Amino acid sequence: MNFRAELVADFRAMLAECGVDIVIGAGSLRGLVSEPDLGQQIDIGGLVPEAELSVKVVKSNLPSTPTHGQIVTVDGDDYRITAIRSRPSSPYVTLELASPHE
């Protein structure tokens, strides 16, 4: 087993233990989620709750290629993709997410 395959195997073991369900488009997978940064934003009509977090997933598990602005469901809550971080040599993709109304 090469180093990259070992990384993916270890990451999948972590997902089995502490991953959460993520829905992207019509497909679902498991990912590791950071602690959300919770706050409030002033909007028309008053304060609106907002949240920012990141999700790390295995590239090969993605049901489709994620896009900026796409709505993603993480553990039952909706978020919008604000950034996608992926290196060609890495088996992972990190999605930066924010509240869907932002």
Short account of what is shown:
The protein has 102 residues and is of the alpha+beta class. It is built from 1 helix and 7 strands, in the order αβββββββ. The chain is elongated and about 55 Å long.
CATH class (first level) name: Mainly Beta
Number of domains: 1
Question: Based on CA inertia axes, which overall geometry fits?
Answer: elongated
Low-confidence stretches: none
What is the third-level CATH name, the topology?
Answer: Thrombin, subunit H
Helix content: 10-25%
Gyration radius (Cα, Å) is: 15 Å
- Provide the β-strand percentage band: over 45%
Overall mean pLDDT: 85
CA-CA gap between termini? 43 Å
Report the major sheet: 6 strands, antiparallel, barrel
| Secondary structure category | alpha+beta
Would you identify the CATH architecture? Answer: Beta Barrel
Total helical elements: 1
The string of secondary-structure elements, in order, is: HEEEEEEE
User: Using DSSP, what is the number of strands?
Assistant: 7
Strand order of the largest sheet: 1-2-4-7-6-5
What does this structure look like?
This protein is of the alpha+beta class. It has one domain: Thrombin, subunit H (Beta Barrel). 16% of the residues lie in helices and 51% in strands. The chain has 1 helix and 7 strands. A hairpin with a 2-residue loop joins strand 3 and strand 4. The relative contact order is 0.21. The mean pLDDT is 85.
